[in-house]
Amino acid sequence: MNDMTEQRPVTDTAAQPVLPDAQTVTSVTHYTDRLFSFRVTRPASLRFRSGEFVMIGLMGDPDPRTGRQKPLLRAYSIASPSWDEELEFYSIKVEDGPLTSKLQHIAVGDQIILKPKPVGTLVHDALLPGKRLYFFSTGTGFAPFASLLREPETFENYDEVIVTHTCRDVAELTYGANLIADITSDEMMIELLGEENLAKIRYYPTTTREKSAKMGRITTLIESGELFTDLGVPPLDPATDRAMVCGSLAFNKDIAALLEAAGLHEGANSEPGEFVIEKAFVG
Ligand SMILES: Cc1cc2nc3c(=O)[nH]c(=O)nc-3n(C[C@H](O)[C@H](O)[C@H](O)COP(=O)(O)OP(=O)(O)OC[C@H]3O[C@@H](n4cnc5c(N)ncnc54)[C@H](O)[C@@H]3O)c2cc1C
């Protein structure tokens, strides 16, 4: 929690019109002019596996002819773990984006629409057992890993959990950096996940534009072998390594090519494999 976060108990939302599948915003945190996170109430009926996504949104503008409003929905990874009593989302702000030009202005007590039908491939069920788990992300592609990093199963299955997050600027790494600092220092999280499990996390943030401790695209750092040297681990090996990937289409394609070249095969819910991929956005 910091001064960028607005949070207060939700007591009275009676003044607002009731939306279909409405959930109430309980906190909002802004990181940069392009990134924010928020938490909402969780529908009692919603069950999901950490790493899945749902459709969320707001009512669109009234149709100028009919005056009718339609829901404006977009896919969003649930950033909170499956056991959390609320739901967390980590969002981009696209200036002219139909949804996020509005969503970025939500405040505590506002309502959003949430379709309680979770789906996705960034789930443990889609991976074969392994020794080392890589989370490769760019930008808001960190969101599903924010969920999985708070899920005990992530640590039960692996000896090491290597989290790479690449953004243009250092400030864009804040959400992920804070989350990892919080889970490794918060007493409740230490008790839930276990100190020895949290010690399995190897966090590897990189920037592509602003100068930082580690610069460069993760694909370049894999190709050069620098990632493995820095972490003191062997190069990718299908016998031991598993990966989950979440970024732009181009990023996913490049990482998939590197993983396949190392002998890893893509998995799915119906047929677990050595790596799985999800788009962080379309376009
Ligand atoms: C499976 C899946 C999961 C997703 N999870 C998330 C999530 O957890 N958080 C999130 O912010 N978005 C996520 N998205 C993207 C999200 O669905 C919307 O595209 C985003 O909220 C912007 O909506 P919009 O209506 O404002 O603009 P849109 O019309 O949807 O997008 C306009 C343009 O903005 C760019 N853009 C959209 N989303 C992003 C992004 N996240 N990062 C960088 N550029 C982007 C693209 O170039 C896109 O063409 C996900 C998309 C998919 C397919």
TrEMBL record:
Swiss-Prot/TrEMBL GO biological process terms: cellular response to oxidative stress; heme catabolic process
PROSITE patterns annotated for this entry? FAD_FR
Q: So where does this one cross the membrane?
A: none
Domain (FAD-binding FR-type): residue spans on this chain = 18-125
Question: Keywords for this entry?
Answer: FAD, Flavoprotein, NADP, Nucleotide-binding, Oxidoreductase
The record's similarity note reads: Belongs to the ferredoxin--NADP reductase type 1 family.
Cited PANTHER family: FLAVODOXIN_FERREDOXIN--NADP REDUCTASE, OXIDOREDUCTASE FAD/NAD(P)-BINDING DOMAIN PROTEIN
Q: What name appears for this protein in its UniProt entry?
A: ferredoxin--NADP(+) reductase
**What is the organism of origin for this protein?**
Loktanella atrilutea
